[in-house]
Design brief:
The chain is mostly helical. It has a single domain, classed as Rhopdopsin 7-helix transmembrane proteins, CATH 1.20.1070.10. It has nine helices and five strands; from the N terminus they run βββαααααββαααα. The protein starts with 6 loop residues before the first strand and ends with a helix. The mean pLDDT is about 85.
């Protein structure tokens, strides 16, 4: 007699025993506690940096390279840390649909804000030349347009994916003997990789533009920090793909969570830590005169 899919035979082969149910549990897995703690810690740190920027919003280093984009980037990084909790616990259809789509849209907003910052650095430098036609692109119109169009494309991809073949809860009875792996089936593989691919495209374009603008003679130029942050971001997600494909069950989810935490922490550290250091420990440099004098040196 063959045992049902949710049971397996004992050693004597004379009785069927229920299989163990496995997923990334809040209570049974130490790694879940670690991920939760790290996510909460970085959320608090991001909130602290946001508070510092609000308190010192009238200083030159905070106002440089579009204050609104910095706020939007901080909020999106905060949300990316929070979306880690969608990956923990027993997956259901709703959380499966929200997992990839939520961090895909959130990261698209974050990377788009960096892309807009990089473009504005290039335009600001070109607009300083006499008679430059780039002056008409200065102001909030261009970054607002970029911040509207690019995330909308990602939202459209996610909406199409969810409407055609959305992710759902799946039970794997056969990968491990004696275990039932409760996991998310991505539904459409094309939809899943389209979300990641578009996010990678935005990151690549942002990296190229920031890399080209990193040496422009601008005292408030943060393109070199954007370049390094995009290098970290792309490295994490490129390394994540083979690790993701070579694992199964809760370890596959752990790889996704690590990639989200590592890339978000990379953005936060590379973009905002240098500014916070100057704001808190080098206030003499947080002036137009100080920054210009530092550049001259």
């Amino acid at each position: 007699m063959t045992c049902p899919d949710d049971e397996w035979p004992n050693e004597k082969k004379d009785q069927c025993l229920p299989k163990l149910v496995e997923f990334l549990s809040y209570t049974d897995d130490t790694i879940s506690v670690v991920f939760s703690s790290v996510s909460i810690l970085f959320c608090l740190l991001t909130g602290l940096i946001l508070g510092i920027f609000v308190h010192y919003q009238d200083t030159p280093i905070v106002k440089a390279n579009n204050l609104n984009l910095s706020y939007l980037l901080l909020v999106s990084i905060l949300l990316s840390f929070l979306c880690v909790f969608l990956f923990l616990g027993c997956p259901v259809d709703v959380t499966c649909m929200l997992r990839v789509t939520s961090f895909g849209v959130i990261f698209s907003v974050a990377v788009t804000s960096l892309l807009a910052k990089s473009i504005m650095v290039c335009i600001a430098f070109k607009a300083t030349k006499p008679g430059s036609p780039w002056k008409k692109w200065m102001g909030a119109r261009l970054p607002n347009s970029i911040m509207t169009v690019c995330p909308v494309v990602q939202v459209t991809i996610c909406a199409t994916w969810l409407s055609i073949s959305p992710p759902f809860q799946d039970q794997d009875f056969y990968s491990y003997q004696g275990k039932i792996i409760i996991q998310c089936n991505e539904g459409s593989v094309i939809g899943f990789y389209s979300v990641l691919g578009y996010m990678g495209l935005l990151a690549a374009v942002s990296f190229i533009i920031a890399f080209l603008a990193r040496t422009l003679p601008d005292s408030f130029n943060e393109a070199k920090y954007i370049t390094f942050s995009m290098l970290v971001f792309c490295s994490v997600w490129i390394a994540m793909i083979p690790a993701y494909l070579s694992t199964k069950g809760k370890y596959m989810v752990a790889v996704e969570i690590f990639a989200i935490l590592a890339s978000s922490a990379g953005l936060l550290g590379c973009i905002f830590f240098p500014k916070c250091y100057i704001i808190l420990f080098k206030p003499n440099l947080n002036t137009k005169t100080g920054l210009l004098g530092n550049r001259t040196k």
